[in-house]
Amino acid sequence: MRPIARQAPDTQALEEAAEWLMCLSAGEVSEAEQAGLASWRASSPERERAWQRAERLLGKLGGLPPELALSALERPADPARRAAITHLALLLALAPTGWLGWRQYQQQGWAADYRTTVGERRQLTLADGTRVYLNTDSAIDVRYDAAQRYIHLLRGEILVQSGADNLQRPLRVGTAEGRMQALGTRFTVREREGRTYLAVLEGAVRIEPGAVGEGAFQVVRAGERADFDAHTVGVLQPTDDSPSAWTQGMLLADRMRLDQVLGELSRYHRGVIRCAPQVAGVRVSGAFPVADRQQTLGMLATTYGLSVEQHMGGYWTLVSAR
């Protein structure tokens, strides 16, 4: 006998369940709200199935994720709250794989306040005048409150130019590895493979690794760069304007390995760009337009005597010796 497949609740019931979850996460639940939830659940089998899914997902997540719970505090008609309800309803539809769905959803930055797709760059001006430039395939959350101005880099790379704040709140940028506090400055931050890369162009930035106690920090000044994980900060090294060249659509290379140049170029384009092992270590110098893959590959081929083969309509590119 074939097993009977469980029928998923309809979309409307899932969205209503998501809205109840957000309502209940906003604070202490009143007796009237408890009675309202009970009445809603009893009103139809669809709604009861939707709420059972919500309870299973909540158990797996250990509570409503804070990125969604924050939206419960917004005005009922707020677009951010509406979007959060829609996202949460999608996770309910994915149950019982909602936990994996949430992890992917969080890692990809789909719930981010601001994001860019592959090849897209974007400039923002925040409420205090701080300017944030998002590089390709990047995502950030922005949280301003009475105590601080906080930008969370979820993925990718940003350039921050701090603005003056009448409330004198510190401006901080956080990543999975820790946080940085701007000291009247202009700087770039990149999150990659479990490390954060910081380059300070003006002013200074204080690094505080996430797993180290309060009071342990490293100050990075203009003309310096450093990388860090949750425990330690790497050795300070000199830097130039190359970390911010992407804001002008350029990649600056100074004796950079060819495989590294192609790796950087691939960030801005869908598809695969690879080089043969024999030429991977060729040292490359120059300025290359990141948006024009064909022009950059042509410049590399002409200057360094390379062969460029493209297949599948340009989706697969191989650079090798001529």
The pLDDT mean sits at 83
The coarse overall form would be globular
- End-to-end gap: 63 Å
> Could you say what the CATH topology of the largest domain is called?
Jelly Rolls
Radius of gyration: 24 Å
CATH class of the largest domain: Mainly Beta
> How many domains make up the 3D coordinates?
3
Give start-end ranges of low-pLDDT stretches.
1-6, 69-75
- Named CATH architecture of the largest domain: Sandwich
Write a concise synopsis of the structure shown.
The chain has 322 residues and is an alpha+beta fold. It has eight helices and 18 strands. It folds into three domains: 11-107, no CATH class; 114-238, Jelly Rolls (Sandwich), CATH 2.60.120.1440; 249-321, 3-Layer(bab) Sandwich (Phage tail protein beta-alpha-beta fold).
Can you offer a commentary on this structure?
The protein is an alpha+beta fold and 322 residues long. The chain folds into three domains: 11-107, no CATH class; 114-238, Jelly Rolls, CATH 2.60.120; 249-321, 3-Layer(bab) Sandwich (Phage tail protein beta-alpha-beta fold). 30% of the residues lie in helices and 32% in strands. The protein contains eight helices and 18 strands. Strands 1, 2, 3, 4, 5, 6, 7, 8, 9, 10, 11, 12 and 13 form a 13-stranded mixed sheet that branches. It has a three-stranded mixed sheet with strand order 15-18-17. Strands 14-16 form a two-stranded antiparallel ribbon. A hairpin with a 2-residue loop joins strand 6 and strand 7 (178-182). The model is unreliable at 1-6 and 69-75 (pLDDT under 50).
